[in-house]
Amino acid sequence: MHVSVEAVIEPGGHVRLAEPIELRRPVRALVTILDDDETPLLMAVAETALSEWNRPEEDEAWAHLQPGRQFGSPFPSPI
């Protein structure tokens, strides 16, 4: 069985789980370090990739898939 549990690893290596878990015996675990310092870089990469879609011609091309919305308006049509 695979279970993911959020945790914080202290500088000395102590692992602090976000919520208690109950185990019947010692188990192996894999630890993935999520470096918060990379968040701005990941956001910049995603923003660059998505900027191609944030254009009026894209809105117009996909407008037919958004019933009740008028082109150029982010709000549903009152009619």
Write structural notes for this entry:
By secondary structure, this protein is α+β, with helices and mostly antiparallel strands. It has a domain of 31 residues. Helices cover 25% and strands 8% of the residues. It contains two helices and two strands; from the N terminus they run ββαα. A two-stranded antiparallel ribbon has the order 1-2. The longest helix is centred in the middle third of the chain and has 13 residues. The protein is elongated, with a radius of gyration of 23 Å. The N and C termini lie far apart (52 Å). The mean pLDDT is 80.
Tell me the layout of helices and strands.
Blueprint: E1 7-9, E2 15-17, H1 39-51, H2 56-62
Antiparallel strand pairs: 1-2
The number of helices is: 2
Please, what is the average pLDDT? 80
Biggest sheet: strands side by side, in what order? 1-2
Along the chain, the helix and strand elements come as EEHH
**Rg measurement, Å:** 23 Å
Secondary-structure class = alpha+beta
- Strand content of the residues, in percent? 5-15%
Briefly, what is this?
By secondary structure, the chain is α+β, with helices and mostly antiparallel strands.
List keywords for this structure.
alpha+beta; two-stranded antiparallel sheet; elongated; 79 residues; single chain
